[in-house]
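User: quick one - fold this with heme C bound?
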Amino acid sequence: MKKQILFAGLILAFGMGAAQAADVAAGKTKSGMCAACHGLDGNSPAPMFPKLAGQHASYLEKQLQDFKSQKRNDPTMTGMAAALSDEDIADLSAYYASQKKTLEVADVEKITLGEKLYRGGNPETGLAACLSCHSPTGSGNEPAGFPSLSGQHVTYLEKSLNDFKSEARTNDASEMMRNTAGKMTLKEIKAVSSYISGLH
Ligand code: HEC
Ligand code: HEC
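Assistant: Sure. Structure tokens for the protein plus heme C:
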């Protein structure tokens, strides 16, 4: 019995050793060309560029692969991702995931509606509560593929929700976000985005 357990442990150790481990230091070196828009540590200074710091590595990898295969379209990112190998993508994602995301400050006038939507959805329109997937603190759920949202720039959050609503962005598994944003009014999108930017 003990021998069997030891053997299983050895197989697991070999299996993990064989897989190419993502390299944070290499990712930092490779991130030079991303810094102009996303900031040195992934906290982008301009609000139309998403923060990458503290985001789950697997979500970042999925987005970069989706830009590369043009499942997700953006004139800038399609070009950036086209030049990246799978190893570059894994290293860059590990680097940004290891950085700490800064927070924004929510607009006081939008907090009440934003909080209501984030925590309870909108029963009248069948809008699901965001926290059921993105967690009560906005940190998401990595194994499930739900990204961290807290502290993200309002401008980018609003753009993402509008893109899912208009179906300009269609790389969400099982149309989870298209079904969600499709039920939201512009006012609701603005309120919940403001709330999330200050959530932690
Ligand atoms: C010229 C500006 C620019 C540069 C340089 C740039 N990006 Fe981006 N990046 C953007 C914009 C704009 C978006 C948002 C696209 C959208 O709205 O869908 C974005 C989105 C992303 C996303 C998706 C984030 C999310 O929350 O879904 C990732 C990941 C990303 N970039 C990684 C990188 C990496 C890695 C590099 C360097 C190899 C890089 N970017 C270089 C402008 C840039
Ligand atoms: C059923 C689960 C689910 C619910 C409920 C949900 N989301 Fe999402 N959300 C996702 C998934 C999955 C993704 C990632 C899609 C992808 O892989 O590109 C996502 C992505 C997002 C993004 C894009 C993040 C980025 O960095 O580009 C935003 C913004 C977002 N959700 C906001 C919300 C808001 C606001 C609500 C509530 C009104 C909500 N979500 C409810 C599953 C969900």
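One thing worth noting: The two ends are 46 Å apart (CA to CA).
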